[in-house]
Design a protein that fits this description.
Number of helices of chain A: 15
Helix content of chain B: over 70%
Strand order of the largest sheet of chain A: 6-7-8-3-9-10
Number of helices of chain B: 25
CATH superfamily of the largest domain in chain A: P-loop containing nucleotide triphosphate hydrolases
Shape of chain B: globular
Order of helices and strands of chain B: HHHHHEHHHHHHHHHEHHEEHHHHHHHHH
Number of strands of chain A: 14
Order of helices and strands of chain A: EHHEEHEEHEHHHHEHEHEEHHHEEHEEH
Strand content of chain B: under 5%
Structural class of chain B: mainly alpha
Oligomer: heterodimer
CATH topology of the largest domain in chain A: Rossmann fold
Distance between the termini of chain B: 39 Å
Largest interface: A-B, 36 and 28 residues
């Protein structure tokens, strides 16, 4: 039934470098008269004091970020850090208090109801924490929902939904109801529903948090597999660091409505911006995240016996380190030698001791779009 | 390090100096007391140390006089006033002709057609069992007969049953047309909801008796008055169910719709309404049951049907006939309940009905029915149920009831005399002599403690108004009517009945609820009994009670006790069941005994439900106590009944108003601060 090479999304490859999502100075303040609070001194009050004084809660404080085309941008934070609210501001499911957000070149906050709906229908789709499936509709009608609100004829949308359900591994359950499926399968329906409208941007809001660890890993792999094929622009919200490190091209760590640090997984783990992030990443197995760039010593003229790429994970370098006697060169993306691998430091890092170099120009400053 | 210091400053900010808390709490404790004392002083200053309510305090020429005047104005202007003639009169004649058309339609269908139709519908929405049950119940209308004792000399009850069915159908259709759109509107537009809420609140605590008289003033005696009363009674729950059903659709499901760019209308039509369908069907089921219960009461205002023989039986003490007619009402209730409940079960998922039949299959079914009806009507000349096909069990029932009554005489008489002499009479005397200002003070203080100053003001106002509903001493109207109406005294009499029935209900109901929670066997025994009791219309309870205790207050108390008992038991069990398993296990793991678990964990956690149980029980008891006016239970209910039978409209209407005020007081007093309708 399912076509061997379905054409999902890959037909319109836009090569422009402009970010797909640009968010600038986004504030979201809950409670009475949020506009009065902006610019006042109360903004710096601790959460509880602010709430006691004005009844307001600040979910998002002056957040700016870009998401490049095809990038997986992870927003990570503990519960209450404001990540789910922020991600809802992108499509105005929650109305931001101030700031600008543009998506695919369109000013989202200025859009009227009609064009906002158009944007939600065609450009962006969301996968929800508790799936948000419609319990009164069959799997296929759930998956076809986005097309249905666009008034796509029944036959066309069912064809499309069936195709996508096949891709996410749900062929054969089209006429079941959501509550007849396991949690993992339900979220696959949620994923299919999002993919069926062929959006440019996919938003995952804690999409896998409600799943068992094994199923969660399976779904993460599924997303990685689909992403390798579809190259969507993805905003992924999670509170699970492992998930963030596994999926993200870049990760924003969020705390109390602020981005504390934005960077690649290696940068977050190898060069935490403050104690909060450091505490977070303390138990991450470094060999799986840190790259050769973190264990460099200057090149002193010796001839490398072997070379490795600076983006290679340290854990994967062990065969080279033990298989080669002489110096190991590290090369950059342009194949230029950037240094020699420091074997002692690799061992220290893998042993979990805090002793490593920080590559030059780590992206510590928030809102700097890193060309990863 | 910055985070810890921030945390510590936060903690200190949250703890204000301790003495402040104490003063605040003390103030909150003392405020109600102060309010009570203040009201006492004001009351004494105004009226002196009177017993009861001062008789000279009369509003205008007396509230009953307003209604008497309104009634006579309506009588004289019936045909000349545009509103009365065209709107009210038009509505009345429409309702009348709709009912009559339906009755003749059912007659045209012939008894075979009606029977098959009932079975077919039951089978379509439910299972075979539902269909067989429907067949049995519908045939009982023909089979169980009342020999020459029936109204209009009809011996079988088929025709009255069809009349009741038609009245209900008209009332239900109108309720649906009004109720569901209102429910949708108040779910979608919060202002509508806010406007409707207080109205619905009051409408739901009103005993149907309260507004029968004003309706009769407008529509005069007959079917339309009955239908209007039914609609007023049945619309509020339908609005509620619809609104709550739509509002409790999970937020994330709606958000998913929004995220995919659905319009508001699309979300309402494709997501909220289908998901609320089950709640709406449940509401419809409620409406059907309420309609049945009030269509019977509506016999009082001249609506025909099965209520008539019951009413006659109660008035002539022909209890065998009453019991059989009552039984038929019960059968009708069970039939309609089963069928409409089956409809609700499938509503959400497989929209519409339980069976999925193709169009041709349905066409064959309906076509077949039509052929059968045509043959029966024109070929066989069938009509209503043939009177030869049935038998009377009235004599057996009368004998049986006499036998049971005789067996129980000893018990019932001693119980009766004990309750009357040692409980009801002293309580009545006590409440009668209770000064109104002290009552107002107690109510005000309790209301303040439970719901704050606004509730206190409202309730004290209601208490005072209750007394002010009275007629002036020696009241006469146009030289023809004259009656006494001491609203305060009658309200206190009603209150004494309510208190006794309520205490009995809680004393029996809560332990039964606990038992049903604790022991599976108790639950298994109780469940069908409670199910059965809950489908019975309020009216029906009066029959066996009168057989045992004769007419009077005690019959009223007993009927109210039985009527409200299921709610008390159910809410208690529900509350206990809602306690989380884990919490109980935590208790067990510390070695609590069963009793400790119950007293220290389960009951305290279930308290909100038990409060709700008390509230529900109070309202149900009150509703039944006033209905019991029919069997001579004194107080406001008796005033309404007297108001009808001697067409003393002012008395009945003023008593109805007093009931409304009393209902509000009792309801608000038994509710805690939690807002009703809040969802988790």
């Amino acid at each position: 039934m399912t076509a061997p090479t379905p054409t999902v999304g890959s037909e319109q490859v836009d090569t422009s470098d402009a970010p797909v999502i640009e968010a600038r100075d986004v504030w979201k303040i809950f409670g009475p008269h949020p506009e009065r609070l902006l610019g006042s001194d109360d903004l710096d009050l601790p959460r509880a004091e602010l709430h006691a004084k004005t009844g307001n809660t600040i979910a998002s404080r002056d957040v700016s970020f870009d998401v490049a085309r095809g990038e997986v941008f992870v927003i990570m934070g503990l519960s209450g850090s404001g990540k789910s609210t922020l991600v809802r501001c992108i499509t105005r499911l929650v109305e931001p208090t101030s700031g600008t957000i543009s998506m695919c070149g369109q000013d989202v906050l200025r859009a009227d109801a009609r064009s906002l709906r158009q944007l939600r229908r065609t450009k962006v789709a969301m996968v929800f924490q508790h799936f948000g499936l419609f319990p009164h509709r069959t799997v296929i009608d759930n998956a076809a929902y986005g097309l249905e609100v666009q008034r796509v004829p029944k036959q066309t949308r069912h064809e499309r939904a069936r195709e996508i359900l096949g891709i996410v591994g749900l062929a054969g359950v089209e006429s079941s109801y959501p509550d007849q499926l396991s949690g993992g399968m339900q979220q696959r329906v949620g994923l299919a529903r999002a993919l069926a409208v062929d959006p440019e941007v996919l938003i995952f809001d804690e999409a896998f948090s409600a799943l068992d660890p094994l199923i969660r890993r399976e779904m993460q792999d599924e997303v990685a597999r689909l992403q390798a094929r579809l190259h969507k622009t993805v905003v992924f919200v999670t509170h699970d660091l492992d998930e963030a490190l596994k999926i993200g091209d870049r990760i924003a760590i969020m705390k109390d409505g602020r981005f504390v640090q934005v960077g690649t997984p290696a940068e977050i783990v190898g060069a935490p911006a403050d104690d909060y992030v450091a505490e977070f990443v303390r138990d991450v197995p470094r060999g799986k995240v840190l790259t050769a760039a973190f264990a460099l010593q200057p090149h002193a003229g010796e001839t490398p016996e072997s070379v490795v790429n600076q983006d290679a994970r340290l854990g994967e370098l062990l065969p080279v380190i033990f298989g080669v006697q002489g110096p190991i060169g590290v090369v950059g993306s342009d194949d230029q030698l950037v240094g020699i691998l420091d074997r002692r430091m690799v061992v220290h890092i893998l042993a979990g001791r805090e002793q490593h170099n920080v590559p030059e120009e780590p992206t510590l400053e928030p809102s700097t779009p890193a060309a990863s | 390090m910055s985070p810890p210091s921030a945390a510590s400053s936060l903690a200190s900010a949250e703890a204000p100096p301790p003495f402040l808390i104490d003063v605040g709490r003390l103030g909150r404790r003392l405020a109600p007391l102060a309010v009570g004392i203040a009201i006492c002083i004001a009351g004494v200053a105004l009226s002196g140390f009177h017993k009861g309510f001062p008789a000279k305090w009369v509003l205008g020429g007396g509230v009953p006089n307003w209604f008497d005047r309104a009634d006579s104005w309506v009588q004289t202007n019936q045909s000349s006033n545009f509103f009365l003639h065209h709107i009210i009169g038009g509505l009345g004649s429409f309702l009348n002709s709709a009912t009559n058309d339906l009755v003749s339609a059912l007659h045209w269908l012939t008894w075979v057609g009606v029977l098959i139709l009932a079975v077919l519908v039951a089978w379509l929405v439910g299972r075979w069992k539902t269909a067989i049950f429907a067949a049995l119940m519908v045939s009982s209308f023909g089979i169980l007969q009342i020999p020459n004792g029936g109204p209009n000399g009809i011996s079988d009850m088929w025709q009255p049953a069809m009349t009741t069915l038609s009245l209900m159908a008209v009332a239900i259709v109108i309720s649906t047309i009004i109720g569901i759109p209102l429910g949708v509107a108040s779910a979608v537009w919060t202002p509508v909801s806010k406007t409707l809420r207080p109205i619905l609140d009051v409408a739901q605590i009103l005993p149907a008796f309260a507004y029968l008289v004003p309706i009769v003033v407008l529509f005069s005696i007959g079917n339309p008055a009955g239908i209007v009363a039914t609609v007023i009674y049945a619309v509020p729950p339908l609005v509620r169910f619809t609104e709550v059903g739509i509002r409790t659709v999970r937020r994330d499901v709606i958000e998913a719709g929004e995220a995919f760019g659905a319009t508001r209308r699309q979300i309402l039509r494709d997501i909220q309404l289908p998901l609320a369908a089950q709640a709406i069907m449940l509401g419809l089921n409620q409406v059907i049951m309420m309609a049945l219960s009030i269509v019977v009461i509506a016999s009082l205002v001249g609506a025909g049907g099965l209520g008539d023989p019951v009413l006659q039986a109660l008035q002539t003490q022909d209890l065998g006939m009453g019991a059989v007619a009552g039984l038929l009402i019960v059968f009708m209730a069970m039939w309609l309940d089963r069928t409409s409940a089956a409809l609700g079960k499938h509503a959400t998922r497989r929209v519409g009905v339980g069976k999925r039949l193709t169009r041709p299959q349905l066409a064959i079914l309906w076509g077949g029915l039509l052929v059968v009806v045509l043959v029966a009507q024109y070929g066989l000349n069938l009509g209503d149920w043939p009177s030869g096909w049935g038998f009377s069990i009235v004599d057996h029932v009368t004998n049986g009831m006499n036998w049971v009554t005789n067996q129980l005489t000893h018990v019932s008489e001693s119980l009766s005399s004990f309750l009357t002499l040692h409980v009801l009479n002293p309580l009545q005397a006590f409440l009668n002599d209770f000064p109104w200002w002290l009552m107002a003070a107690l109510v005000g203080a309790a209301a303040w403690a439970r719901g704050g100053p606004r509730r206190a003001i409202l309730l004290v106002g209601c208490v005072a108004l209750m007394g002010l509903m009275q007629a002036p001493v020696g009241y006469t109207f146009q030289g023809v009517t004259s009656y006494d109406f001491s609203a305060w005294g009658d309200a206190m009499q009603t209150l004494s009945l309510v208190i006794v029935a309520l205490v009995l209900d809680l004393a029996v109901g809560i332990p039964l609820g606990i038992a049903a929670y604790r022991w599976r066997a108790a639950d298994a025994v109780l469940r069908p009994i409670l199910d059965f009791l809950q489908t019975l219309p309020a009216f029906v309870y009066l029959i066996p009670v009168v057989a045992l205790f004769g007419v009077g207050n005690l019959a009223g108390v007993t009927a109210s006790f039985v009527y409200a008992l299921p709610a008390a038991v159910r809410a208690t069990t529900l509350g206990l069941r809602a306690v989380q398993r884990e919490v109980i296990e935590a208790g067990q793991s510390f070695g609590s005994t069963r009793w400790q678990l119950l007293l220290k964990i389960e009951l305290p956690i279930a308290r909100p439900y038990i409060t709700l149980a008390v509230n529900q029980t109070i309202l149900l008891v009150m509703a039944e106590v006033v209905v019991a006016g029919l069997v001579g239970a004194g107080g406001l209910g008796l005033d309404v009944v007297t108001g009808f039978s001697r067409s003393e409209v002012g008395l009945g209407a003023a008593a109805g108003l007093t009931m409304v005020l009393m209902g509000i007081v009792l309801d608000r007093l038994s509710q805690t601060r939690q807002t009703q309708g809040g969802q988790g």
